[in-house]
Structures
1.
Amino acid sequence: MATSMTDLPRVAAFAAALAYAGCGAGASPAQAPGAGGEPEGVPPDEAAVRAVDDLTVSAEQRAKLRTLRERLAAELAPAAGVRPKLVQAYLDGIAAGRLDPARIDPLERDFVAATDRARPAVLAALNELHAILTPAQRAALVDAIAEHGEQARAQGRERVRRLAEALGLSASQKRQIFWAARERLGEKRERMEELHEGLRAAGAAFKTEAFDATKLAVASAPLVQEWLGGIRVTLELLLPVLDREQRSKLVQVIRRKMEARPQRP
């Protein structure tokens, strides 16, 4: 399943992972520039939810979609209980300048276990989403999410620039982060390419009549683990370089993003 740092996967969020490779896995805490130069924006799972909401559907379809979301939210409730504790552990680590493995590792394991238990329900929900939508709606959904992903990728450098500006990074700090990221993230490149290819194939499959989420190669892929690993790597790159004031700014940015997220079933 795919998710973002500030929320849990919904059925539409999982569709986002299937529709666009690289939207969710390893997402950094700040996604895109907003007003005043502060990193802000629409995370991949929220973009997927909006894409579903923007579909032109009948009253009957809309009722079915709402029921589907509510049922999936119930299945994900155990993971929802872990999420705020895990996010707070990350934020406390940012503020302290060092992640605490003794605190974070058990929470990550609990989160992964909870989402793994919900995996069959998520796959069933994705199949139900496929059944609810018409062929044209399925194609429109996948294309809309893919377009968001392409736009996000195209805006990547600008997002990095805005985040650096918001945190007040010096030229020396930028160089340190660049070289550290090149070394650490290079190790993940091949694995991420494999996941991306599986996600692209799943997005194409969602457009077909024969779609079955349980048959997808990506259905058993450790997407949540990869996402958490991306967060850990991102923070481990940043924290040794940032000073106390910059870490405080990063915490504030993340908190504002969390508070701005719409609450949905």
Note: Confidence is low (pLDDT under 50) at residues 1-41.
2.
Amino acid sequence: MWTLWVALATAQNSVDDPTPWQDAAAAMPNGPAGCWEVVGEVAYGHDVGRWVRAQGDAVVYGRLVDGVWSTMTVHNAGHRTEDRNGLATTVYAHDHAVIPLFGFVEGGSIAISNKQVQVEISPDGNEPKNFLRSVLNSFSDAVEVATVRWDEGRAGRELNATRKAVKGNGWVDVSAFFPSGGTVPTELDVTAPTIPFGISRVSDATMSLRTVNGPTPGLPKAEAYRIEGKIFGLIPVSLRQTIRYRSVLPCAPSTPAAAQEPVVPPPPVVAPEPEIAPEILVVPEGQGVQETTTGTSPHSG
């Protein structure tokens, strides 16, 4: 990506080339390296004019392998709709596609319902897609103007970048925060202005990512997006989704396949020996009676 940049002095009066920070911010949606078992709580909503007003909650869990969702399962916890008269209804057998901002989805298609339905991995060889990056590239050009400054109050570096909107006169803003001057961001925000798309237009769009500031960089903490616009210039549309990641743990180690060993025939079955009655030994008088038992004796124990 060709970059135009303006360098600003930090608190230490040094000049930062923003390119490394831009690259780190661009890599944040990729998700963490390695294999992770992820559990998150989802809240979503979508409105279309006065006809559709819906919102709901769900629980999503799956596996992220080097940033790719290899599995994903969603349990719907209630889909609530409200008609134009204000009558509310809640249903649980509702299909709702959860598309995360963190990580990549292979094949570009997800089939999810209130039951345990896995991500549909398309076999057509499509490259995995990241939703945030796809939206950003469709909204703006690749040319980016960026600045980096030290935020004394928050004790970290702040990246601010702008990209020209594909249509109209607006700019798409991208900001990221690097705590303690580190090289891995914990916050990423994308804000888009009004952008016309033929007979429709996006009037406001925001996407946000948050990661855990801990020893393992890049672990997802929360994400959210909101896209609002109008169809035919008249009908308002709103799409919203928030995911709060409650658990991100390393995948359990898989058990290696047992090595191939030569097949050894089982030993022959030997018939059990018949039970032997206890043997009574007679000893001289005064020394008592001693029993040695090779089977079961009523006097044993």
Note: The first strand starts at residue 3 and ends at 5.
3.
Amino acid sequence: MKNQRQIFIRLLIYSIITFAISLAAISILPVDLSLPDILLPCIIFPLIAALAFFIFLMGTRANADRQPLYTAGAVGLKFILTVIFAVLYFVVMKNTGTAYIILFFLLYLAFTIYLLLGIVKVLKIKSLKQDQA
């Protein structure tokens, strides 16, 4: 339980750091992005990652035969929600400038790597516990 709570706390800290870096980047670099432009992706991507972590962690409590299904479901749901967000972000909101595209894919990459590293860490810890038993 403690490890699961730590995952969400670290995700929150990671999100705050990512937002701070994004704010620093738009103030230093000559891009035409403002605070509202980076606020939406910096909120949506952590929510999608948190949902994926939640589904994955539900699978770690399930029996061993269903764990891969939960893991694949978590990663697949993250991908589908990101595609839906991309359509809304680029088509509906008409954020088609180069800066918007780079911001979107950098945040996508950052939170995807974070999610996958978190999943690998939990699976590694679980594997070590099973080996000791």
Note: The chain has one domain: 2-122.
4.
Amino acid sequence: MPNWSTITQADLKERFAAPEWSVVSSVLLVSGQVGSTVMDDLLTGTMDTVRGYVASCRRNQMAATGIPNVLKDTALDIATVTVYRRLGGKLVDVDGQREKARSEAISRLKDVAAGLFLVPVPDTALDTSNWNQGSGSYDYVDQIAIVP
């Protein structure tokens, strides 16, 4: 089993009660959009956020796609709240557990970026030797940034 993978709609669906998922799926539709496309875009954005935190630590190696499996629940905690915010902020959150889980997920990602929470090396790692991660950017070493 690979140690990096993507999060899917099926993964996210497990976070919701059946009636809740039905409402979420239908309300996410915007005129001219397909619900699955909207959901895929939300999940891609969440994975990009996780990947950004992982890439922020020089010790971490990156896969071409996906996120470390050890951060899958972290990503889903964020995605769950993101879905509700897409619904106009109507978060169904008994006792604030979903928002608390999201806050803990962001804290965990900050630990990943600081190198305090280790992630596994992907089965096939990208060559990031030409990334200039020391400055917090994703530019290449050969490029020069002029800052006023």
Note: The helical segments are 9-13, 18-27, 35-55, 72-86, 97-114.
